[in-house]
């Protein structure tokens, strides 16, 4: 299951970076967008604030996916050591208060549909909102979205195997553990960071999920890196900020190559004994050069202090 988590996390992480990049390019180049909102980011920020408020309104569409709760509250539900599906059936079921957040007071919603809607809505909203002209982080939203995806898969597994994969005598299925693995794998796929595994262990205070977290994190990171750059690198490229170029792949033979094999031996330079005529001829012969090394001795090529 760690492999399944890693594949889905890598694909969705790359898709998230791609969507964010397309949104940023659309805002910069689309004529209709520029005609409506102009180049001032304040108007689009206010527009998106209204959209987020409408979508997550508890009395409207927000009631279908726990829209009135913060990321901290929903994350606590995702990693809780209980199940939404098996509530009131087994001892592993969640409390009534926690369950009502996702299925309603009168059980009018499905926990699986609420989790799926939560994942899709915030997947799109976060991709748009991190491009706004307001301070916003990407780590916590990605962590919560990944936890939601992991919780969704964990609840499906609990529904399919209510007594565990090996029966009542074997290990039981805890969707909270799936949420932890999903959060780490998806966040690592978006940020291309491997330190998420350490953060997960420090947050939970347990080492039991370390192995599945590492497997899902590394494979998901590899898949996402193959498809898209990290979200931070993508933002740097979109804003044309200075950054280090990607190092091209090299073979082992390159590491044995010496500087003298690729350096220029016939160096044009100026010494303290160079005459005006020689300097003039040098400048006329090399109009493409903008600077010349000033050395002490032309035989030893020592740079003059």
TrEMBL record:
It is found in: Membrane. The keyword Cell division does not apply. GO terms for cellular component: plasma membrane. GO terms for molecular function: voltage-gated chloride channel activity. Keywords: Chloride, Ion transport, Membrane, Repeat, Transmembrane, Transmembrane helix, Transport. Pfam families: Voltage_CLC (PF00654). The chain crosses the membrane at residues 6-25, 32-55, 115-136, 143-161, 173-200, 207-227. This is Chloride channel protein. It comes from Brugia pahangi (Filarial nematode worm). The lineage of its organism: Eukaryota, Metazoa, Ecdysozoa, Nematoda, Chromadorea.
